[in-house]
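Board notes (copied after class):
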Amino acid sequence: MACNEPAVQSKHVCVIGAGPSGLVAARELRKEGHSVVVLEQNHDIGGQWLYEPNVEGEDPLGREPFLRVHSSMYKSQRFVWPREIMGFTDFPFLVKKDRDMRRFPGHRELLLYLQDFVDWFGLRELIRFNTRVEHVGMVNYGEYGKDLRWVVKSKEITTKGDDDNDEKMVEEVFDAVVVATGHYSRPRMPSIKGMGTWKKKQFHSHIYRVPEPCRDEVVVVVGNFVSGQEISMELAEVAREVHLSAKSLDITGGQSKVLDKHRNLHLRPRIDSLEEDGTVSFIDGSSVIADTILYCTGYSYAFPFLDTKGIVVVDDDRVGPLYEHTFPPSLAPSLSFIGIPRKIISFPFFESQAKWIAQLLSGKRTLPTWNEMTQSINDFYSSIDAAGVPKRHTHDIDNFEYCERYGDNVGFPHLEEWRKGICTSTIKNIEANLETFRDSWDEADEKLLQEALQSLTSLNSDHKS
């Protein structure tokens, strides 16, 4: 080692969660020479992609601090994005024989991909399954950047019989903690007059799995984003009526086609109030008597195990303060969050986050000063406030250039033009062909697809050699 190169430090690191972000974090941390323990509450890897059909016992509105069910996947769910832009940059998500070979496969296909990733890189030995993190707190909080360590209390759940769980608490100390728990589990609920006294069935899409329980019912679906739209279409096949309540009645051409096709699917404005007899009143004065209300109203960030003495808080879905959506300045780099940003091509972004975290902990790279990070955060908050962006959308990136600038922190390659092109064309196709976009695309898409396959096949050959 040259005398001017910093000594590489090896840290004992806890990664919370074995979904995509936690798995790539584990790989990069180990690659950088750190000792890694991954704590995962489920029996297998996958996080959101580990489908859980049994939702009995889960609070239908997600009001408990610790949720029993992590995944919000429903049985028939397929990708919104094509497989070419999914997957990590050095481990392409390619078609495999005798598996789901569609461009937009079902959720199990990504779980199998993640299992391949874990097996290829030998990550399973790092993971403790059936282990729920109960508490993460600072051992000592001294000067900035000095000797900060973390105590992690976890509960190992061992099933001895059908209803007999033996829970053993384990307490450990780590040099650093990486929070990789995802953000599609904790229901974000609206506030509607009469909601607390409504006598009929109401639940969040977090526990929606199949449409059959709503057969022959009148169902009101709240939320007109992709999940609300797609679940409404599925429900329309079995329900007597489906009323999709939206903040705006401006719809895309694709949704107009869906409403024309499904005569029992109706677009409604926002709900004004709920009555005990089952009446749902809308703000335009119309109403229906419903059997079920299904809230497709999105998800919130929640870290019920994390105690930072108020340094990191979740305020209307703004997790902060976080420098570059990753590091709280006063606790960096010993505490980091991976997978907070939304509206991104997620897997490459997680990968660049993981590399940055790992290299900061080893001492290969350094963060700006506390003052510089804090100023950057304040400037960012001011810019989105000035643009009229609600606080709850703080982490909605929706910006290729930002993702590339982020990757520059570790020299991570910029997104390929074909990847950007496929992403953009998919969004347009969803808007134009909501019900069929996964199985039909035009000539321009076909050219992008060929370029993507050529690039990914080459990457795969380089990787396996």
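Comment from the instructor: The chain has three domains: 12-185+299-409, 201-295, 417-460. The radius of gyration is 23 Å.
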